[in-house]
Amino acid sequence: MATLTLDNFIIANRDQLIRRCGAKVAKRAAPATAKMVIDQGIPRFLDQLVVELSDGPSQAYKIAESAGQQGLRLFQQGLSIGDVVHAYGDICQSVTELALEQTAPISTEDFRTLNRCLDDAIAGAVTEYASESAASTDGVSRQMRTLLNSAIAAFEVIRAGTVGATGATASLHRSSLQGMLDLLDPKPPTEQPEPLRIERRARR
């Protein structure tokens, strides 16, 4: 059986993938929030993924930007960071499940691209969510809580195997931990060296 490219697989099964993802999201989210994810977040990501898979212009920035906007909207709806990242995990699971059901032999390279795009999306969504959460609160303890939530969410995604340990989500995990360390042990500003002074010698 010839290997089916993932972009063609998604194009052929786009509506079914959206329905599958939507059913998973609906089990966790309120109806209005689930509708927003199904109508906006999932279709946009799938369309950007198709372009990335088909060797079109890189969608990495657009994927992270769109996911960030989605993370902001979901924050405003009162969802947790965990709820935000689960929606992207649902996409990976739905694609994998449907491919197995149809015995579609999708290449390892295409799945690697899928995971990379999911990684960019999750990192973008969590970053924007955490940024908005920090902006809406005051105090070191609340900043710490935001960083901790980001670190936990990123770690859970990595542990679940949705993304690897060397991508954008892993970098977010590390930066969140570093942010907590900086809050606990703030370092004084680095002293700037005095400008070099060159004395003129008197002419003889």
Estimate percent helicity.
over 70%
Question: Any idea what the radius of gyration is?
Answer: 22 Å
At CATH level 2, the architecture of the domain at 6-137 is Orthogonal Bundle
Main β-sheet description: none
The class by helix and strand makeup works out as mainly alpha
Examine the coordinates and then state which fold CATH places here, giving the name of the CATH topology of the domain at 6-137: Globin-like
CATH homologous superfamily assignment of the domain at 6-137: Histidine kinase N-terminal domain
DSSP E strands, number: 0
CATH class of the domain at 6-137: Mainly Alpha
**Strand content of the residues, in percent?**
under 5%
Total count of helical runs of at least 4 residues: 7
Give the uncertain stretches in residue-range form. Answer: 195-204
Structure summarized in a few sentences:
The chain has 204 residues and is mainly alpha-helical. It has helices spanning 6-26, 31-53, 60-76, 81-101, 108-135, 140-160, 168-184.
Kindly describe this structure.
There is one protein chain. It is built from seven helices and no strands. With 204 residues, it is mainly α. It has a domain at 6-137: Histidine kinase N-terminal domain (Globin-like), CATH 1.10.490.70. Helix 2 (31-53) runs antiparallel to helix 3 (60-76) and helix 4 packs antiparallel against helix 5. Mean pLDDT is 78; it is low at 195-204.
What's the topology here?
Elements: H1 6-26, H2 31-53, H3 60-76, H4 81-101, H5 108-135, H6 140-160, H7 168-184
Helix pairs in contact: 1-2, 1-4, 2-3, 2-5, 3-5, 4-5, 4-6, 5-6, 5-7, 6-7
